[in-house]
Specification:
This protein has 387 residues and is of the alpha/beta class.
Length: 387
């Protein structure tokens, strides 16, 4: 078999189907440590630099089992092709390289249907490379989006494939960890860009301010989408209650954590706001399904590989946080688990506020890497371990 290309979705499918393959990442160790392929199940992942293959090819090849398919990954594709051809010459007979490089894994979106028994279609778009989720609801011939990523072609194509028009695109807050897609989607589709002015009033986005407790409706027989201001992660953090059954919680509530209130440099003020928000949300119906903006790792997924849990389950997972009954202790918890935010976040905020513009290559560089938006002792410990 000659060397071939594969795409990010094919890689995701192989890994979620537990196929016995070797993923060989030939980027340098620094880039590999910052961002790598991850999956819900264990798999063989090797990091051997492309430069090592150039200098000591035989020693590199000796580290790779010959009895398994090899899928090579690099930054932009060329280095992976170079290594794949070396492996083929050395007798490997099932070798592919990732088309477009690691950025295609970082931008991959996997649609999962959350509402098979409802008259509307609620989708979770999982972004494995960012450990994040965006959402879409189709009712009739209309589509509403929540927190779309910069892979705007995916959402536009998704709407076209489902024969519907994007009518609204909502932002749960001014994102810091990834470049948002609402502005471009709005410009290209005519959809209304909906955002909380407590985060967006200083931006140059053409948006419609959200109204707390207001319901946003489809033209015909769609579910009620109620806006709920939930400040704390940011002053303008917003959640959306869909059909009184689902809550798109943004970065306010996660399954195994809650949102960080320290990213804006106003730790006490935002911590107090988040405490009040959590106290309010914990009294919502326990059966309400929480749809988070991020996950920490794949052990949060359901057996169907979706990120959705009842409010009761999220409270149980985070019972030590919800047990805190005063703002002073809550602030102490936040301060005790703070960690330095990535330097890229400041630039990403400016881009999402339409106050700064970068070319596609720089945007890709900024946008890669997992999110760090959760406030948990685990996350702080993990961060310190990685330093």
């Amino acid at each position: 078999m000659s060397v071939f290309t594969y795409n990010a979705l094919e890689l995701y499918t192989w890994l979620t189907n537990k196929e016995d393959i070797i993923v060989l990442d030939v980027r340098n160790k620094v880039d590999f440590s910052r961002f790598k392929v991850e999956a819900p199940y264990p798999f063989s992942l090797l990091n051997i630099s492309y430069f090592d293959f150039m200098e000591i090819a035989d020693e590199c090849v000796a580290q790779i089992p010959k009895d398994k398919p090899v899928r090579v990954v690099c930054a932009k594709e060329g280095s992976a092709l170079y290594v794949a051809e070396i492996l083929e010459k050395k007798g490997f007979n099932d070798v592919g390289y990732l088309e477009g490089g690691i950025k295609t894994w970082g931008n991959l979106l996997v649609p999962m249907l959350l509402s098979p028994d409802e008259p509307y279609a609620l989708y979770q778009f999982i972004r494995p490379g960012k450990a994040s989720c965006s959402y879409g609801i189709i009712a009739g011939n209309e589509l509403m989006l929540f927190d779309p990523s910069r892979n705007t072609d995916f959402y536009l194509d998704f709407a076209k494939q489902n024969k519907c028009a994007i009518v609204k695109t909502f932002e749960t807050h001014l994102q810091a960890d990834y470049i948002a897609g609402s502005r471009i989607i709005s410009e290209q589709s005519g959809a209304s860009f909906m955002a909380n002015e407590n985060d967006f009033k200083g931006s140059r986005n053409k948006y419609t301010p959200l109204v707390d407790k207001r319901s946003y409706l489809f033209s015909d027989k769609g579910p009620d989408v109620q806006c709920l201001f939930t400040p704390g992660h940011t002053p303008g953090s917003t959640s959306f209650i869909i059909d009184e059954k689902f809550m798109v919680s943004g970065d306010t509530i996660f399954i195994h954590s809650v949102g960080r209130p320290d990213l804006g440099g106003q730790v006490q003020t935002w911590s107090d706001a988040l405490f009040d928000t959590l106290q309010s949300l914990k009294h919502y119906p326990n059966e309400m399904q929480i749809l988070p903006g991020h996950y920490m790792n794949w052990n949060e997924a359901t057996k169907d590989l979706m990120f959705c849990a009842s409010l009761a389950e999220t409270k149980e997972h985070n019972k030590t946080i919800y047990a805190i009954d005063n703002k002073k202790e809550f602030l102490a918890f936040i301060e005790g688990n703070m960690r330095k935010q990535p330097k890229e976040y400041a630039t990403i905020r400016l881009i999402n506020a339409n106050l700064e513009h970068v070319d596609d290559d720089k945007a890709e560089e900024l946008d890669l890497g997992k999110n760090e938006c959760a406030a948990t002792a685990f996350a702080a410990k993990q961060h310190n371990t990685d330093l």
